[in-house]
Amino acid sequence: MNMEARHVLVVLKHKDKWLLTRHSVRGIEFPGGKAEEGETIQDAAIRETIEETGVTITDLVKFAEYVVVSNVTFCKAVFTAQVVSIDENPQLHETEGALWMTDEELNECDELSFHMKDAGMPKIRKWVENYV
């Protein structure tokens, strides 16, 4: 299936902790979302991360794409990045802000969204760990 990625997922580890957020409906997950009209997927990844966590990122590296099959099938680009700054009191959209978790905390978390339980997620996390 040849489909342009218009959704983004940002998977990054900073100071040995994963950047996550708690979505008000789905639960704990990596930040991400959909590119807006006229926006590049790189700009969408930066914007979504700021909006959902208050964390500003740079040096994006796109390392994967995958197709999500649901009511509306779409392609998601997966990025990792470097942290520039962390706003401790951000204006948030749809989430409760940044959650920083160690490997152990993430592995044992029972509040993960269904996105985080996808069979490809361990490979994605491993790629980021090897990249860092």
UniProtKB/TrEMBL annotation:
<keyword id="KW-0378">Hydrolase</keyword>
<dbReference type="InterPro" id="IPR020476">
    <property type="entry name" value="Nudix_hydrolase"/>
</dbReference>
<dbReference type="InterPro" id="IPR000086">
    <property type="entry name" value="NUDIX_hydrolase_dom"/>
</dbReference>
<dbReference type="GO" id="GO:0016787">
    <property type="term" value="F:hydrolase activity"/>
</dbReference>
<dbReference type="InterPro" id="IPR014078">
    <property type="entry name" value="Nudix_YtkD"/>
</dbReference>
<feature type="domain" description="Nudix hydrolase">
    <location>
        <begin position="1"/>
        <end position="130"/>
    </location>
</feature>
<protein>
    <submittedName>
        <fullName>Nucleoside triphosphatase YtkD</fullName>
    </submittedName>
</protein>
<comment type="similarity">
    <text>Belongs to the Nudix hydrolase family.</text>
</comment>
<dbReference type="Pfam" id="PF00293">
    <property type="entry name" value="NUDIX"/>
</dbReference>
<dbReference type="InterPro" id="IPR020084">
    <property type="entry name" value="NUDIX_hydrolase_CS"/>
</dbReference>
<dbReference type="InterPro" id="IPR015797">
    <property type="entry name" value="NUDIX_hydrolase-like_dom_sf"/>
</dbReference>
